[in-house]
Amino acid sequence: MPLAPGDGRDPSGLRQPVLRLAVRRGADMHHLDRPFRSGAAKVSGMPSGESLGKAGLKGRGGGFQRMLGVQKWKDHSDNADRGAYLVGHHWNLVGLISPWGTRWLCWPLVMRLVPGLKGARQWLVGDAVESMTFWDAAIAAILEVTPHLKDAAVRVVVDAYYSKAPFFNGLLARGIHVISRLRKDAVGWDEADPPPPGKRGRKPGKGRQWTLASLLTAQRPIRERLILYGKLTEVVFGVRDVWLRDVAQKVRVVVLEGAKEPIILVSTDRSLSALQIIEIYGARFSIELTIRDLKQHFGLGDYQCTTTLAILRFVHLACIAFCLWRLALIEHLEAGWLQVTSSRVSLPEAPLSFQRVRRALRAWATRQIIFANSAPGADLEKIERDHEPLLHMLM
Prior knowledge:
Helix content: 25-40%
Structural class: alpha+beta
Oligomer: single chain
Strand content: 25-35%
């Protein structure tokens, strides 16, 4: 992938030939009577994750076509205006994270619908046929990508929702490590002490129990600096290798000092240092920016088709368009048509901002229309000055 080269700085030793995949769950939320427009439907009386099965989409002839896979999920956000539940399609998005200078970019690769608790439409086929769980579907989406990465080592970075034993164990069984975040009340255990010589009875299964957030005060915290979100940042943290409940192997936990309460990160790969774990988890934020751009600029949630195949084609075409635009933008960052400024933009824009591209294209197209009607030999600079208020309004 022809990415722009970095600046060569690597204080944490992270830019090694290991591929990182980000996984994000999310939903395109829409009112059922106005499907696939931005917004959330406030409904009640149904358990979280229960599938509604079908939603009505009014056709041209006045009848209703059925859209499969619409579900209702509990809203875990702090936005009270969205109501207690969200209704729509629920997705897993798998993206490839790559370094770009001091920042990280996420390239969306695979999107798969998440099954609900009822009305499952995805199955595991082996000696028996059983419906997929949420964790099965997430792992299956990751395994669609990994065969194309050949022999490269893979690490998966996910948010706290995925920090569950079934997800960890399913990937560990396939040789894939996970970096995630734990709940603030998470606990872990030290290795059990060996019994004294000659003592009979069952060997203790666990050692000392820790409330992981307390590790920041139970031992002397470490203070270091690293590049986080593109800036040199000082972090205060504690680190310890512990066992988590039902997880198949020992993990490394990093407890960061937060603004209000400690932030607890976990890595199943204990060869990573604490700084590397912090930087990898920080890189996960790039998938949030990708989802924002996919929705705002590539119409990810605007599909109005009713068949599963058509919906899958739509969302993957949006992902392909996103990647192609970004590749072209990286290659032409210094192009003259991109160098536009606007008095309406008070904050500096990111180099790869799609909003910046939209403004630049709008200004370029407007200039072409204005100059096309100009007489031969006309003073184009004067014409542009005369139309400057219009150009500023468009940008």
